[in-house]
Amino acid sequence: MKNVLSIFLMVFLLTLTYSSAGAADMINGAGASFPYPVYSSWAYDYHKATGIKFNYQSIGSGGGQRQIVGRTVDFGASDDPVKPEALKKDNLFQFPAVIGGVVPVVNISGIKDGELKLDAETLCGIYLGEIKKWNDAKLISLNPKLKLPDAGITVVQRSDGSGTTAIFTNYLAGVCTSFKNKVGEGKSVKWPAGIGGKGNEGVANYVKKSPNSIGYVEFAYAKQNKLTYTQLKNKAGNFVQPNFDSFGDAAESGDFDSKKDFYAWLNNTPGKTSWPIAGATFILLAKEKKDSNVKTVRFFEWVFKNGDAKAKELVYVPLPKSLKDKVRAYWKANGIQ
Amino acid sequence: MAGACPCHSIFLIAERYETLVIQKKNPIDLLFSVITAGASFMVILLVIGIFAILLKESSLSIGKFGFIKFIVTNEWNPVTELFGAAASIYGTMVTTAIALIIAIPIAIGIAVFVTEIATDFLKGPIGAAIELLAAIPSIIYGMWGLFTVAPIMTKYIEPALQKSLGLVPLIGMLFQGTPMGIDLLTASVILSIMIIPFTASISRDAFNLTPAVVKESAYAVGATQWEVVRDVVLPYSKMGVFGGIVLSLGRALGETMAVAFVLGNNHQITSSLFSAAATITVTLANEFTEADKDIYLSSLFHLALVLFMMSFIVLAAAKFLLFKAERKINR
Predict the structure, then answer these.
(1) Residues of B with CB under 8 A from a CB of A
(2) Which of A116, A219, B195, B323 can bridge A101 by disulfide, Cβ–Cβ 3.0-4.6 Å?
(3) Do B287 and A184 make contact, defined as CB atoms within 8 angstroms?
(4) What is the arithmetic mean of pLDDT over B25-31?
(5) Do B292 and A197 touch (CB under 8 A)?
(6) Is A161's CB within 8 Å of B289's CB?
(7) Eight-class DSSP state of A319
(8) Per-residue pLDDT at B12
(9) Helix B27-57 vs helix B294-330: angle between axes, to the nearest 10 degrees?
(10) What is the pLDDT of residues A292-328, one digit of tens each?
């Protein structure tokens, strides 16, 4: 009995010393699921380079915001920017970490990648259930060369609350007043038409399997799963393809202001070749936790320097250089570097 | 005699008490009873605790929408922050009901076959298969449903139903709309496959309670197998079978991942089984992580509270029926 007890005690003490030693070189974060693959792959490289562990739990943006407000983590991550007033109330810093975008994907026989052209009005009409057929006059006038079928449009959207939906509905509400009035914007909304798939994989699966359907997914997901994406008309009036350049251009022309803690959507940015539906994913820090903030910022400083290639490999769009510099200045101004 | 000498009986009681105390003083026994008692009371505390937390977290929603009004309101709009549970409760009840309609006859058929008809050589493999079916994690049913069942439903079963039953007046309205595979029917079919093992194994145990003498007497007077099952086994075990069905009902009410992928999470009440819908658990699984406003999160807790109460009532009813069935057999 005594032996057993002493063994227990020893194990207990060992774990205690181990975990207290671990806490010093460990960064704990939680939040958005969209950047999880890139954060964890950066974390792996960072650990190899510095020996510091970066532990990230993808519990969703809403959860990330709650955790950092409750001060249970070193940083929170969110796919939608938090408004400056809310940041002030909860005493938080905010800066962007990486860019992502949303692309419409379709399944129409005979139509290949990037062939179908859509604009704000038609996309809005389709998601409001007002444009019901692929051979609608508006779609034909945008695509005079394509052979669009006389078939009903199956509209697919996300059934679960997600940052992807937040970006997509923010875009639609911004470019189309009737969508703003009838549906509004948010992580989950009450869709007037269509069916819901759970997660990017759910939407992708339904678009792949249902002829004449349209859905929206993250760029990375569309690319990795070889879904048929469309062109979109941007604010400057040009039709653009979704790729690193057009997303980078969107980020470049985005209205990021360090005075507003980078609160900005990247939808419908004015750049000539900007992809119109994009967004940054953000990091939230507790202002009073100086030590852990320095640790977290050091990680992102390292990522800004060394992480671009890995991000591109995983089909994430790294921040453009000008934006990185703005973020660095923001860290400096707030004394967390 | 006890009356004649009370001092003697007092002495006896004292002696017995002493042995009791001595037994309790044994440290290992004492530790053992304290641990087991602690474990048991913890369960009660947990249930009360969960209920209290659900009540506390949903207080904002109860205050804004009202407990009863929340249940009957058919509106779920995170943008306008108006929430009501009617569509989710409707979806929960419809999927559960259809799943039971499909599962009960099959499950009872399995139980009859295993207990009354199959030879011993077959009983083992079938029993093991049923238990294995019950052991598959529900997320696997969910993915299988999304990638395998839904396309089959869309291509073959739903169009066939539409062409046959869809043309019958009144029943026909259950089968309207374009079959998409993300709908009440697909979710119900997957749920039914999930609950068959529960109903089957509880029914099998209930059938086994039928005294062999009674069955043999029935065979002796010339009853056929069908007559024995119908007139002897089923009447003997009907309360047990019913209890099993209600337990499966409880399971179906709370099932989440198996249906989360194939129901679409559309908050609407429709007559067609071919339209997307939502159940309480599907709503929670889909929206909990990204609920960013306080009233939104509170309404999700409110939904959970409603489900907690529904499940509690169903399980209480099941326990009551099983208790009655046991008493009847013991008599």
Answers:
(1) 76-80, 146-147, 150-151, 154, 178, 180-182, 260-261, 263-267, 276, 285-287, 289-292, 297
(2) A219
(3) no
(4) 83
(5) no
(6) yes
(7) P
(8) 56
(9) 130
(10) 899 999 999 999 999 999 999 988 999 999 899 999 9
